[in-house]
Amino acid sequence: MGTQQSNPAGPDLAAGVPIDDLPHGHMLVGHVGEDAVLLARRGNEFFAVGATCSHYGGPLAEGLMVEDTVRCPWHHACFSLRTGEALHPPALSPLACWAVEQRDGKLFVTAKKEAPAQEGRDRAAPAAGMPERIVIVGGGAAGFAAAERLRREQYQGSIVMLSNDDAPPVDRPNLSKDYLAGNAPEEWVPLRPESFYVDNGIELRLNAHVTAIDPRSREVALGGGSKLRYDRLLLATGAEPVRLSVPGAGPQQLLLLRSLADCRTIIERAKNARRAVVLGASFIGLEVAASLRARDIEVHVVAPEKRPMERILGPQIGDFVRALHEEHGVVFHLEDTAGSIDGNRMALKSGATIDADLVVAGVGVRPRTELAEQAGLKLDRGVIVDAYLETSAPGAFAAGDIARWPDPHSGENIRVEHWVVAERQGQTAALNMLGQRKKFVAVPFFWSQHYDVPINYVGHAEKWDELTIDGDVMARNCLLRYKRNGRVLAVASIYRDVESLKAEVAMEREAA
Ligand SMILES: Cc1cc2nc3c(=O)[nH]c(=O)nc-3n(C[C@H](O)[C@H](O)[C@H](O)COP(=O)(O)OP(=O)(O)OC[C@H]3O[C@@H](n4cnc5c(N)ncnc54)[C@H](O)[C@@H]3O)c2cc1C
Ligand code: FES
User: Which of 34, 113, 156, 487 is deepest in the core (most CB within 10 A)?
Assistant: First the structure.
């Protein structure tokens, strides 16, 4: 999946379209000059915004209009039709907006509206009652979304983002997909150019390893021995890949994938590789397998389970994903694990051997909770937060892969490892660090991509007692509902985007 620019198609909206062509609650796509424009109607109100999602270019006309918003069919970003603002990630940038005029039974899309200035504002002292300094530990999805949102909210105080990575925040999902496959240029990887941080007064400190947090004195300690005071803290340290220990494996032999640096190492090693072993048949492992196949490398997947992804998506999608990868030449060694490595030869527990010049392990992650533990925060397989994403230490919030929050949809305290959830939590934490008291109520969403097949998942079902299927999984046209006691907890889909969006809206309304 990559950024796609829709070719301006449909009617010339500057020349006018009959009002009757656009019933209430409907959208139509056309163009104004070179720009693809989405025209939408709610009652007697008309809106015109850019037709292409600012995340990866999804066609918004194929999404879902909900009141005065539009949701993207690809990864469920949500935009205001009134202002173009990106209301829900993964999109963070607004859509352009146009004025709409009614004349003689027709609608005319006229002038493009000025975008509100977001960057390069002069920063004054924070308003009374606002925190003076917000420290964000982590330069990933949640940390970045929080910093961006704080400035969007016109927060004038100091924002310091501490990341022990050497790269500014990156589009991590791309690292196992297009970028690893060699289909995405380098400039797609950073979430924002470095100038963004300067222009927005976000003090991004890279290679900054936070070693301790003292919630009583409200200080964080850094690797070099320095300390930094905070008024509000966001802990967004994410997760790290589980390291397998395989007898005989050299220290650099089992490659992992989390950071841009990890991805570059795999790409470098892939240049001279003929055959790769991927340990693990879940999302990251199989996305890596697909990307290595795009580089024409022979790929063997070794994993202990009977079917890929069965625990999360069920047997039908598991069988489909396996067949899809086999169609692309991947060889599976399921119900098997790596026993030992001798040079380039991997011996499996079953006795089989594979000669491989590249081994990537994608066998799960564990939340990075060391700092929270040292700080005495309440933990339970993650950092416990309340509905406002505040930890057990007042003024210290947590978001993203480390946070376990009270999910109003499942009624359980859950922790997930989804890009969009991390971003949405980062935004909610930002609002709450400014005292807005917003509960985190978003329905969890994730996507995964294998070759040209996207899988979307809405909700959260750790266990289910009934699984219903609309459509045909093998024909790549299906919607699966995961139910417990008759209630739909989650929905997975392949090429049923509008139904997936409708399921999301239904789950939101159910918990409201
Ligand atoms: C290759 C890959 C592909 C993925 N694809 C998808 C996908 O398609 N769909 C999906 O929904 N999810 C996907 N995910 C999962 C998604 O990326 C994560 O859920 C998300 O990044 C979590 O965001 P986060 O902010 O919690 O953590 P991260 O994005 O991991 O950020 C954590 C940050 O904290 C920093 N940090 C950690 N400890 C310290 C410390 N002590 N001091 C200073 N800094 C520290 C790290 O350097 C990093 O910058 C993917 C993950 C990976 C690795
Ligand atoms: S392309 Fe629209 S949300 Fe990703």
Answer: 156
Whether the CB-CB separation of 273 and 357 falls below 8 Å is answered with yes
What is the bridge-based pairing of β-strands 202-205 and 158-162?
parallel
Q: Indicate which atom in ligand 2 lies nearest the CA of residue 1.
A: 1
Helix then strand then coil, in percent of the chain rounded to 5, is: 20, 35, 45
Cα distance between residue 133 and residue 323, in whole Å: 52
Residue 89 CB–ligand 2 contact under 6 Å: no
| Residue among 227, 189, 186, 187 at smallest CA distance from 208 | 227
128-162 pLDDT, tens digit per residue, is: 789 999 999 999 999 999 999 999 999 999 999 99
At 150 the pLDDT is 98
pLDDT at 228: 98
Residue type, 224: G
pTM confidence score? 0.96
pLDDT at 327 (0 to 100): 98
Q: Which positions of the chain have pLDDT values less than 70?
A: 1-7, 116-124
**Sequence-separated (6 or more) residues with CB below 8 Å from residue 193:** none
- Indicate if ligand 2 lies below 6 Å from the C-beta of 64: no
Contact between residue 145 and residue 151 where contact means Cβ atoms under 8 Å apart: no
**Nearest residue to 154 via CA among 439, 441, 436, 438:** 436
